[in-house]
Amino acid sequence: MNYEEEENNDSNLDTNWIKEFETTDQNYIQFYNEDVNEIKVTSLYIDKENNIETIKEETLFLKQDNMVTKEELIHVIKKNSFKDKKRYTILSLLKYNIDLETSNVKHYLKSLLSRDFLEVVKNIDNIPLKKTISMFQDLNTLFILFYEKTISTFGSNHQTTKKIYISNNKTKRKQLKVF
């Protein structure tokens, strides 16, 4: 067999199985893990009586895949800390990130045991996110709980400092000379 005969045999090979595999693979592409490049941010506003006043949702497009940076987080918190002419302070920060492996989806759906995907974020710092199955990407959420801040008036606050006036007017005494 020479080189020309091999080339003809290669062109005559059946490549239909590759095409079938690619079309079948397209059906399962939604079950592959992908980088998280956006996350839903849900802000919950709680009033002084501990009632949920408002819920606000927005999408945050991440500058870095699989990471909510400290700068992005601070920007979102500052932007959402005022609502309806009221000031809110951050009460809690929660991250919901589904990190199931593709092979475990079927087992997870049939299992009675629940996995806890909700985590408390203790510090305002970079928040790492794990890769998520593309079908569950829209479930990844960052929950920010805001509590209404009480504004004290000047008259009712007893912790005001007393103003002290300092003057430099010393009384000058003249001595009488005795002759």
Automatic annotation (TrEMBL):
This is Uncharacterized protein.
